[in-house]
Inverse folding.
């Protein structure tokens, strides 16, 4: 039995961060200032706090300015919108990111819609999703852009390949499908109501699993030689000692016998998310300064 390749997202992300650091040095030389990223965290969700801390550290590590804004769960929507407006006007800030999820009493769409699209380094604003959908230059959501980078690195030209995206979220599934379409793949979006998901997935040369359900995509669903990108990060109880571990949306151990290549969880897509965020911030900084974006990004 042959075993598929494990795609090392951690190593790819480290190389991307090095390229961003080089690009930042060039930007500082050209403009006399550092690119700046503002991250807004509402509440104290432990996972979100870890991601925000990590974003701050990596922002500084590539030579950018990091601005962190922590607000309590109880913040009102108007106050959050006022903060966003301040950041929109702040010349030191090239990128604004509001860590998701937000507390239930805050309208996520209203907050994202208040971010200046030129500073929307998450690529979630409708202006950026519209630009992406119509094939124009846009700030693109970090996780799907990271997935495309890994796929192109593994497969080269994606043109004509059959791709199935499992999941239809605005953050991953929909932009992922748009990016694959832009690469001339033949794209299907499957979701919780899709009939006979196993046979839909079995058609695919590329499977992107982004449903948020632990190991839902089974190994036998995968067409031999397919490439699988696992976006899921699901914490599950492991054994009797009460400890937990993280698994993806794909049953990786089973899938390895079928795939050409697969991203692991952890260490696959996750690390790409923050590396692409830094890349997007540098791209936004160049655009705001009227400079062309560095060629290798
Ligand atoms: N405004 C945003 N909110 C959220 C986003 C986003 O892109 N923008 N994505 C996720 C969280 N996220 C970054 O914000 C993120 C998730 C996972 C990882 C990561 O590196 N994961 C590791 C495992 C981590 C662990 O052990 O818990 C991995 O997969 O190897 C980075 C960033 C939701 N919110």
């Amino acid at each position: 039995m042959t075993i598929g390749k494990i795609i090392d997202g951690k190593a790819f992300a480290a190389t991307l961060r090095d390229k961003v650091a080089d690009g930042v040095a060039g930007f500082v030389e050209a403009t006399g200032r550092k690119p700046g990223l503002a991250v807004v965290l509402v509440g104290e969700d432990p996972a979100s706090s870890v991601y925000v801390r990590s974003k701050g550290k990596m922002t500084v590590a590539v030579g950018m300015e990091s601005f962190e804004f922590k607000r309590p769960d109880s913040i009102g929507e108007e106050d959050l919108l006022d903060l966003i407006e301040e950041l929109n006007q702040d010349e030191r800030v090239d990128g604004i990111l509001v860590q998701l999820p937000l507390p239930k009493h805050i309208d996520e769409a209203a907050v994202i819609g208040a971010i200046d699209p030129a500073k929307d380094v998450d690529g979630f604003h409708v202006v950026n999703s519209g630009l992406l959908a119509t094939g124009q230059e846009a700030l693109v959501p970090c996780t799907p852009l990271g997935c495309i980078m890994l796929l192109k690195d593994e497969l080269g030209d994606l043109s004509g390949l059959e791709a199935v995206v499992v999941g239809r979220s605005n953050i991953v599934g929909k932009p992922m499908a748009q990016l694959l379409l832009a690469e001339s793949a033949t794209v299907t979006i499957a979701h919780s109501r899709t009939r006979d998901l196993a046979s839909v997935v079995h058609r695919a040369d590329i499977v992107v699993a982004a449903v948020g359900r632990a190991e839902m995509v089974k190994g036998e669903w995968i067409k031999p030689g397919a490439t699988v990108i696992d976006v899921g990060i699901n914490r599950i109880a492991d054994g009797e000692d009460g400890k937990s571990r993280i698994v993806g949306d794909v049953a990786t151990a089973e899938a390895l016998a079928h795939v050409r290549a697969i991203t692991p969880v952890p260490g696959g897509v996750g690390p790409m998310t923050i590396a692409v965020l830094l890349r997007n911030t540098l791209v936004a900084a160049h655009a705001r300064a009227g400079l062309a974006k560095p060629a290798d990004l």
Notes: The chain is about 40% helix and 15% strand. The chain has a mean pLDDT of 97. The chain has two domains: 31-116, 142-271.
